[in-house]
Amino acid sequence: MVPKATSHLFWVSIEAGAMAAGRDLGVEVLWNGPATETDYSRQIEIVDSMIARHVDGLALAAQDRTALDGTLDRAAREGIPVTVFDSGVDSTNYMTFVATNNYEAGQMAARKLAELLHDKGSIAMVLHVPGSFSTMERERGFEDAMAKEFPKIQIVQKQYGMSDRSKAMAAAENILTAHPNLDGIFGSTEPSSIGTALALKSRGLSGKIKFVAFDAAEGMIEDLKGGTIDALVAQDPYRIGYQAVQTLVDKLNGKIPPKRIDLSARVITKADLDKPDVQALLNPDVKK
Predict the structure, then answer these.
(1) Class of the 102-234 domain?
(2) What architecture is the 9-100+236-263 domain classified under in CATH?
(3) Mean pLDDT of all residues in the chain?
(4) What is the SS3 assignment for 234?
């Protein structure tokens, strides 16, 4: 299994799900990914090394939708089944795609922010990185829902956080400087959301600007409790990791997995945090 990166809690949770599936299904899971989501050459190198080892199955989350096309062609020639998880590719040389329905998740974020703003106002977006299929779909879903359903809400600025909380904080700072009367903001990933929260807190704007964040790292949950974040759109990364391994094991056992497995995200507010199902979603047993 080759993720986009290994540091953010999202990827740690996917690894936990994958390792649990490995134990349950009796397969060895090799986990290796680049340190950052923008080290494209390193991800290609890791996937190539997995193919050279003649692994029985390969699962990968593509940093860029086209960068791994040649590598996927090579896996197909070697007869290695490939499951793409989290972030899609333009290539058709894969067996199954397992991911959050990111377009739908973006729409959910837009509708929640619109609800918080009573369907009017000016907002901004702190985006992820160019070329990342999953986050581009999420951002497209957000923008489409805003344009079609909430014509009185205007997106006044968008900046990339480049999968780095410090760069995301700087992007949010730039937006807040340029638009002092901003009503709301959306962070489309964990690092974008954490950086945005840092910017809002540093300016004393917690609770004054409506903020919908994406993913659910520990610090983000604290910011939801404290009022800096008004709502989280949370994925189920543990389940993504488990399902990715399950599809490959099914294939090795002669079954035909579905071409696409869509998992729904969930909008979580402070009032939801004590619900048992939300607790289970936000606190997967990554240490076990």
Answers:
(1) alpha beta
(2) 3-Layer(aba) Sandwich (3.40)
(3) 95
(4) strand
